[in-house]
Amino acid sequence: MSVLLFTTFIPNLNQLLPQLISQYGSLIYIGLFALIFIETGIVILPFLPGDSLLFLCGSLAALSGHPLNIWLLIVLLAVAAILGDSLNFEIGEHLGTYLTRNKKLSRFIKSEYLDRSERFFQKHGKGAIFLGRFMPILRTFIPFTAGISQMRYRDFVTYNVLGGITWILIALGAGFFFGNIAIVKAHFELIMTAIIVISLLPAAIMALRKRGGNVSGD
């Protein structure tokens, strides 16, 4: 599924999104809300285009006369990010142990990402909830791990709100202020691809390390 998403939907995002906006108008806000909510809230879907989508939305909202409103985007997508992490935390708290131990269901939750998330959480403590927002893949697993570890919800929600708002402001703001600069606009597809590659790089490095460890172990 992640390969299909990467090879079809994500590389064409900068062409597809304007078409969808033109076709569906204000209804696009519902779709954007759903994408951010699912990317942060459903632990088995960490490959959805979070950073690249936000950057693109910010750059489109900066265009004169464009229907996307930057302030509405900030509010809606910040709420989506916060609610998504909250859902992920609840899933981890109430179903995490069952999901990771059930043979049929655990295959949907990659163990290497979960292990990395646990190490990151142990290293940074509560701050991992905030910092994890800026690390693709991990941003989906960190709240799930926090739920499994029975972190106090009062502590979680503080870092969740701060992290969600900050992530949305930075990602949308980067697109809004820099997405339409001549050199950026001229190489927009390349920049979008770079964002996607950087987003997936930690996962690729993790997979290579694991493979290398298995080979050396054999």
TrEMBL record:
Cell compartments where the protein resides: Cell membrane
Domain VTT per the UniProt entry, residue ranges: 48-175
Superkingdom, taxonomy of origin: Bacteria
Protein topology in the membrane: Multi-pass membrane protein
Main location: membrane
Keywords: Cell membrane, Membrane, Transmembrane, Transmembrane helix
Residues passing through the membrane, by range: 27-48, 68-87, 159-184, 190-208
InterPro entries: DedA-like (IPR032818), VTT_dom (IPR032816)
Record-stated family: Belongs to the DedA family.
Protein name: VTT domain-containing protein
Source species of the chain: Sporolactobacillus shoreicorticis
Lineage summary: Bacteria, Bacillati, Bacillota, Bacilli, Bacillales
